[in-house]
Amino acid sequence: MKAIIPAAGIGTRLKPHTHTAPKALLHVAGKPILGHIIDELIAFNIRDIVIIVGFLGDMIVDYVTKNYNIKASFVEQKELKGLGWAIHLAQEHIIDEPVLIILGDTIFELNLSKVLSSDYDTIGTKMVDDPRRFGIAETDGEFITKLIEKPENPTSNLALVGIYFIKSTDLFSRCLEEMVAKNIMTRGEYQLTDALALMLKHKCKIKTFNVEGWYDCGKKETLLATNRYLLTQIKTIDSLPDVIVIPPVYIAPSAKIKNSVIGPYVSVAEEANIESSIIKDSIISSRAEVRHCLLESSLIGNSSSYIGAYHKLNLGDSSEIGY
To answer: Is the dihedral of CA 7, 13, 19, 25 positive or negative?
Structure first.
């Protein structure tokens, strides 16, 4: 069993943070997004993982090789021509065995054992209020009848949430090749949804499975919402000297905090330094410095420094605000 994680996107909606770090390495609830995904795969004994990297991909390679004892392969995506193109580049890894594809900004809670025991190819879906942001599936109640990428006028609100279990790998590879050879594109990109739609045309039976525990990390607001939820699932540190901790929070062991109020819903990453501050509903990234301030609903990037005042911030890596 092999997993493929496309993680080459530039994360436009999460700038300025993605100017200096891949989206998959942004911190949420104590670890990078990618770390949550890999940990979940390992929990189901999936240790053969292919990661598709692009901008700042060497940072992803470094993170995975330093932190995980798994069989990791890396495929470079030099051109951002869509998710279908990304998977097409990894075709040499899609041979003779089922493959699980999980998008690199998708944190999920799911009993994968039920999915992996399916007799059919199957796609993770969830009912959403606005399906225009997603690929959508139409079904006859049991099998998918139609797949459409980001429709202007949706005929279904059953959204594809970024988890795909492919058993028919030979047909899947041929449909990826057909998509590229025939230049089948949607909105100027090769979409994975279009390759899967070709599988339907070739009479492949594809089912859906419900993914209630799906947490989007694609923009600041959803990243903070995901942080809030995940923090409720982990053990909060009980106390620190001269610090009031209001659970749920995550504070890395190497973080230094003095004379502050932390929480609720705050994640503090490795080597962060916080002094004389009140912080809630925020993510403080690695090596960031926060002093003499009040923060709420904020993202503070790696190695950033913020001193004094009350704001809602979206401060990228290696930035400085002070007096």
So the answer is: negative
